[in-house]
Each structure stands twice: as structure tokens, then as C-alpha cells.
Design goal:
With 758 residues, this protein is an alpha/beta fold. The chain folds into 2 domains: 143-402 and 409-551, Diol/glycerol dehydratase, large subunit (TIM Barrel), CATH 3.20.20; 562-756, Rossmann fold. The protein has 29 helices and 20 strands. The strands form 5 sheets. Strands 14-20-16-15-17-18-19 form a 7-stranded mixed β-sheet. It has a 4-stranded parallel β-sheet with strand order 6-5-4-11. Strands 7-8-9-10 form a 4-stranded parallel β-sheet. The chain is elongated, with a radius of gyration of 33 Å.
Amino acid sequence: MSDQNSTPPLPNRWQRFDQWDKRPLRLDRFAREDAKNGFAATNSPADPKPSLKISQGKVVELDGVAEADFDLIDEFIARHHIDLSVAAEAMALDARDFARRLVDINVPRSELTRLAKGMTPAKLAEVMGHLSTVELMFAQTKLRARRTPANQAHVTNAKDDPLQLAADSATAVALGFDEIETTMRVASNGWANALGCVVGAAVGRGGVLFQCSIEEAEELAIGMAGFTSYAETVSVYGTEGSFIDGDDTPWSKAFLTTAYAARGIKARCTSGGGSELLMGYHDAHSILYLEARCLCLQRGMGVQGTQNGGIDGAPLTYSVPGGGREIFAENVMAALLDLECASGNDTRASSSEIRVGAKIMPALVSGTDFICSGFGSILSYDNSFAASLFNGEEIEDFLALQRDFVVEGGLTPLTEDRALDVRRRAVDAVAAVMEELGLAEPREDQKTSVVFASGSLETDTFSAGEVVAISRKIKDGRITATDVIKALHKRGFVEEARNLLSMLRLRVAGDHLQTAAIIRDGKILSAINDPNDYSGPGTGYRISEERWREISAMRDSIGRSDVFGAGARPHDGNAAYALIPAGSAALGRDKKEVVIGLSPAWGIDIHETTAGHKLSDVLDALIAGIESAGSSFRVVRVRHTADTSFLGLTAARLSGSGYGIGIQAKGTAVIHQKDRYPHMNVELFSMAPITSLDHYHRLGANAARFAAGENPEPVLVAYNGEALLAKHHVKTALLFAAETGATNPAALPEELRLERRR
């Protein structure tokens, strides 16, 4: 039988660890560095030393491997990546010296990319190893192919619903994404998904490139029907075992990218650290070295760009010491090899929002051709690719980062009216196409549910199974983009028909196949006509004044008019008191009185505290508290200062008891005593946003008890940090600016007579 009087056992750990255990970071797992088993971000002992031997115009040794021992990756790199005209010069360079050139504004990008074409994978990895994260960011700023950064969105949903896909595509386009990508929960729904996205993408803006990610033969068929304009599903690996496991070779991948390009579909490959480790074919090499092999393969294939960095293997790579730096080094290496870089960030690499925000910053601050290759513009549960680094829940967080650091992330804040307008237009457009082509007849309530829904859990529309029939009709009926254009035009969606037709014309011209091409205002921007010309401060891409106005116009931005406008002032008739000036304030004689010192703008320019309390109610609470403790009160307006401490000290020096209360109109208050230093108050109430009327009542009572010679228990305002939240700071600064603007350094304190109104 236990002893009921025994003391509870002492804790056996510092309780802070209990709190840390509840943080989202604990959902992550961190891998110990273990190069033998592939857990090395860089510099594995198994990584080869850089070497290159050429005999009779042919590579006969690559990174320590003789020609007779080449695997299929060595063979392809040796025959198709290595530029023999610069190889000797490039390989002779000291890796540290070349790394310094990457951060030297006097060395042009063209010179660096020229030399990189003659470097082996091991040489490239060695160069990257000499750069810190900050240096990698600087290098990326000058190395990216296109001058103007952009962004790409995932548009999917859990039901494969074409109505929602259209609405969400239109929203993504309105947000500024230059590419959108979809996939599906049910493979058979690829054609319906393509229809929904391509129609939605044509709403409000032309020239948005679109991809339907599915099995490659099916994807090519969807592209041939005119629905898609780019592809990035061509996966490349850094070990022979990974390629064999995927039933592919570098040659088959090269053929596939050629097939896309030959049909006017912009293509890039996909690689990224950690994939070989996930597949079990890491060969004990470092993650960075394997990615260097992937990128050399891609350059040898002749593809215009790559999707690399934070792809499917990102959570694994991010778990390894130095993994975040390695992921970004991959992006820099891609740009160095003159490839368009869609810099990953399409995989949720961490459960920690702090780590998520940190991971995006190198790419966002330095700028890449596409900051994300798959920003989840939809909610995370609707993301059929799996949750992205950023999803629909966090779009405004990303917009704030652009604004905070004055960087181009490719997105533009979206007003509520604009969002509803494009969503309604897109839903009506795709519904009209479906009706015109005999695919389905969406009901009005179905369409409305999609327009207002944030995600598929809130829609009352097609299920994934119902979409199968729609998709089959599109495929079996050999419906093409031209049929969609005709249907749009016939049903009055003329602008959308023109936008979609312009994409088909672009497919014929092929200008969007240039390296790093996007379409803005109907014009191609690429490495050809918008080359990155960064060469130091004042050069390269700079945000224009017009663009800055777009980026900075965040929702919930407030200014003086929002705080002091007509709607910000309560009606005077609701005030408990009228404050009547009664001449200069004099020293009091009542030994029990408490003087309340009001700030200069109290009840004149400002009528509510930051917590939303009417100032008359606050004053009523203070007076009631003073009287409840048996003291009298006087009220004065202090006009020479708005500082809380000096408000309180001035009131105390006028008080017969020597105790006073100083209070700003925004709600910050102190109890002061006449003989103390200005900032050595008796009690401070600094948490105005969470200070209640009861707190002010107790403050008044404590001031009265001090005046009576007692030592009351201090009043504490409990908080969890909420009073310090950033949302309060703008309003607080605006209010205090009004207070300081109302001061008159030469003015004496003014006695106030209270006339009760209610």
C-alpha cells in the first residue's frame, strides 16, 4: 500500500526538454554522418579525386576511372559533357582559385560557364566544397541563366476535380506563377486534369506554361494533343545501379527530352540529392558528388534545364549534417553548367516552420530561374505530389518574405475580389467547355462550392471516380486543345480562347525552348534575350518601382488613416466623462490622493487603447479602483511629454500623497512615486494589448494603497508573448506618433474637471 503522505518524485530531466519535445522539430529526424552508408553531404572518402586524361581527342580517364572501366554514366559524361576544347585549361585550375572567381564581380558569368564545361563531376564538387553558404548565394546571384527570377506552382486536388483545378489554376496565374504543374490521384484522370488546368491557366493572363506529370508516354500524348507546353519528369541519377533499377539509361533519357523538344514542349530533367540513397545505390559517394554526375549528364544530353536541389530526396538530404548547404550547392552547380535551374523546394523537407523558412532563403535571396519547382498553390492535403516546402496555407508568408527582404520571388499579393473574380471565370469557362464537348454538365451549386472553397474538403462536386469517365471521353474522343479553343470562343470566353491559341502558336515557333524561357506579356524572356548580367551592386535584376508597389501591397497593411479615420473613433456620446480644462494643475494637499496623469492626445486624437478599450472606460476603471481603496483622485493632462515614465513622475510630483498614475492613450501605464528616478517606477503595465479593464481597476487600487503607506501585491498581467506580437507594433507606433505630435515642451500640466455623462 503506497504512502499517501510521501512526496512526489523529483523530475529526472530539465523540464525545458519536455517543452522542446512538443515542438514540430521533434517530428524531424537527424541522421548521423556515415559516409560508408551514403550519409555524407559532401566529401565522402569514396569520392574520387578530380582527374581527366585525353588521348587522341578522346577521354581515356575520368576522375580516376580508366576508359575500360567506365560505367554508363562515365561513358556518357566523357563522350557528351566534357568540352575537349577547354578541358585541359579547366582541369588545370586550382579549385579554390576557381571558387574565388565565382564570387568575384570582375569575372563574367560567360567565362565561368565556359570553363565549367570542361570540368569533371569530381572537379565541380571540389569547387563547391570551397564555398560557404553565403558565398554560394553570391555565386548563384551572378550565375543563374535568366536575369528575371520566376516561380512555379503545383495545382492538384484530392478529387482530381477539373472544376477545382480550373479555379486553382486561375488563382495561381493571378498570383504570378509563370508555370503550373499538375498530377493526379488516379492515373486515368490525367486528361481531365489537363483540361481543367489548361483552361484555368488561360484566365486573366496568357503565356503560362503548363505540365501534366504522369507516365511519360501518356504525358507525351497529352502534350501532342496541345494541352501541355513543358515537361520535367525526365529523372536522372548519379549511379549506374539507380539507372538500371529505373529501367533507363542516359541515352534513353536524352532521346525522351529530344522527343519533347521536337514537339514544341519545353523540357528539363529532374535530379536532386538523396535519390540514389533512397533507392539503395549510393555507392558510398557523397550526395553532392552524385548530383555533380547527374548535372554533367544533363548538360551532355543537351537539355535546356534542370529541376534539382530539394526534390523527393530533400527530407533525407536535409537530415544529414550540412544537408541544407548541399541542396543549395546543387542549384549553384546547375547554374554554373549553364542550365536553367528550377531550384527544388517542392518537397516539405522539415516539420519545423523555422527550418522551412530558412531553407527557402538562399534561393529566394539570390534568385534562381524558378525559386520553386512546385510551390503548392493548393492546400497541403490537396497536393497530390505530397506537401511542398510551401503550400497554399503559407502563400502570404512567402509574399511577406519578398516584401521583407526586397527580393523577387515571382509572386504578387492577391486581393479578395480578384481571387473570386478569376475563380468564378475559370469555373464557368471549364464548365462551358465540358458542356459544349459533351463531357459533363456541372450544376450551379457544384460550381459555386468550388469558387468559394479553399480546398476539396469544402467542395460539393465531382469525385475522383466520376472524373474517370470525363477523362476517358477526352482521350477516346481524341479531343485536342483546338477543340477546347473552339468551345471557349463559341461560349463567349474569347480572351481565354486567344490565350490558349497563343500557346499553340508558341509551340510551333519554339522560342520557349530557349534556356530558361518564360512568357511575360506575350513575350519570351530567356537566357538569350534576358541574360543575367549581374556584375556587382547596381547591376543585374532590380525590382522596378511598379513591381515594388505590387510586392509591398500586402493584405492587412495599415496606415494613419486606418487608425485615425472616421471608423476608428467611437462616438463621443458613448463616453463616460467629458474632460473639461480647469487651468494649470497645482500641487495637491490631500495626503491620500492619487493623481492620474493623462497623455497629450488622450481623448483628443486617440479614443481607444490598443486592446480596444474606450479611454473613458479605462479612466472609469482607474477611478473606481482608487476609490475602492479609500483614496481620492485628481486628473491632469500632461502636455510636455508623452513618455509613460515622465507622465507618471509628473503626476506623482503633483500629488499630495506623492503617488501618481501615468497612462498613455494607447494603454501603457505606470504607478510612480515623486522621489524616484524617472524610469524606476513602482509598477509598470507595459502589456497594453492584453491589459483588461479589471487590470486597470486593480492598478488604481494599488496606487491608492501605496498612497496610504501600504505595500500591496503587484498586479501582474499574465501573457504568453501575445502582447509583443508584431501585429500590435504598427498601430502602437502610429498612436505614439500622434501622442508625441500633440506634445508642447513649454506647456504646464493642465487640471481636468470630469463631467459624468452616464
